[in-house]
Amino acid sequence: MSAEGAAALPARGRERLVFDGWIAAVGTESGTRVVVGHWPRSPFGPFSDVMLERADGHRILLAPTARTAQYIAGVYHFDEVRTEPVAVHSRGPVWDVAAESLRLRFTVGRRGVLGLALRAVPRPLARRPGWAALVSGPARLLVGVRTRGSSRPGWRQWYAARDLRVITSAVASFAGTDLGALAPVVPPVRFGFASAPATPALVRVVSTVEGAAVPVAPDQG
Question: N or C: which end of the chain has fewer CB within 10 A?
Answer without folding.
Answer: C
